[in-house]
Structure formats: C-alpha cells, structure tokens
Amino acid sequence: MNSSNKNIVLMGFMGTGKTSVGKRLASMLGMEFVDMDHVIEARAGKVISRIFAEDGEPRFRQMERELTVELSGRSGLVIGCGGGVVLNPDNVQDYQRTGMVVCLTASAETLFQRTSRARHRPLLEEENRFQRIVDLLEKRKSLYEAIPNRIDTETLSPKEVAEAILRLYQASAG
Ligand code: S3P
Question: For the chain, which residues make up each domain, given as ranges?
C-alpha cells in the first residue's frame, strides 16, 4: 500500500493527460486528487482564460506559486499541475521536497490532436495552434527534461500511464 503517503505530482505540457491520469491514479490509490487549475478557478471565481484576460498571466503565475506552497505542505495528494508550473523553478523544488514529481510527455503532433477541440487554454488560442505548441514546447523543453521521472504517453492509455506511475511510486516508497 501507500506507506510513505507522499504526494504524487503530475507535470507536463498541456494535453499530456495530467488530469485524466491523475484522477485514475488517485482512485487506484484511494488518495485525493487536486487539479491546480480547478482550485485557482474556484478561488478566483472565474475561468483561467478570464484570469489571463482580466488580470494578466503574471497574476495567474503568482496564484500558481501560492497554491504550490500550500499543496506542497500537505501529504497524501495526487496533484495535477498546470503545464506552466515548471516556469518557476521554486515550484518544482517545493513539490520535489514533499512528493514524487512525474513529468508526462508526448509529441507536438499528439498534443495538437489532444488539445484541438478544447477552447479553455488561453496560451493555445492562436491562429496556428500547431506552431504555437511547437514553439512553447521548445521554450520549455529543458524545464520538462530536468524532471527525473518522465513517462512518454504517446502510445499509452491513461490507465497504462497511471499503472506506470503506480509502479514508480511503490518502488520509491520501498
Ligand atoms: C498552462 C496550462 C494550463 C493552464 C493555463 C496555462 C501552461 O493547464 O494552467 O492555461 O502555461 O502550460 P493544463 O496543462 O492543465 O492545460
């Protein structure tokens, strides 16, 4: 079972499956799932695109930072982070201190397909969404690659990804 009770923290680009995998994993382990974006939206009383439009991205990043400090001080959670949490190295460091951080990855083509119908991500609301994904991935590449636990989700179902993380977690709990 879950002897260490440390958090499992899912990072990775938009569309890598953090939320669907996180929910599944939490129910497999009997842990609570927390989606950072949802908490931020609930507290702000508005959706992320409105936060970006009305308050600006820096304010959103500040809210992410504050929530990271709070959640990394708790235990027994499966946490789905927003894709940009890695932009602030303090976030990654805080989560690593009290949890097992896992980065989910996929190719730009797959991320494009997985995000193509959604309209709730302000950073992807560009005319050429595929190019936007390629550019953002390139900018963030080194940040995602710096996370030691990485799972390529390209050919895996959310269930298979959750099972792979479960194995990592059990191995790390000893
Ligand atoms: C963002 C990712 C989004 C959300 C916001 C910004 C990013 O979360 O936090 O739109 O900078 O990558 P998801 O990764 O859950 O889509």
Answer: 7-169
CB distance 83 to ligand 1 below 6 Å = yes
- For residues 4 and 96, is the Cβ–Cβ distance under 8 A? no
Burial of 127 (0-12, 13-18, 19+ CB in 10 A): exposed
Ligand 1 in reach of 35 Cβ (< 6 A): no
| CATH assignment, 7-169 | 3.40.50.300
- Residue-by-residue pLDDT tens, the chain, 174 positions: 444 699 999 999 999 999 999 999 999 999 999 999 999 999 999 999 999 999 999 999 999 999 999 999 999 999 999 999 999 999 999 999 999 999 999 999 999 999 998 889 999 999 999 999 999 999 999 999 999 999 999 999 999 999 999 999 999 876
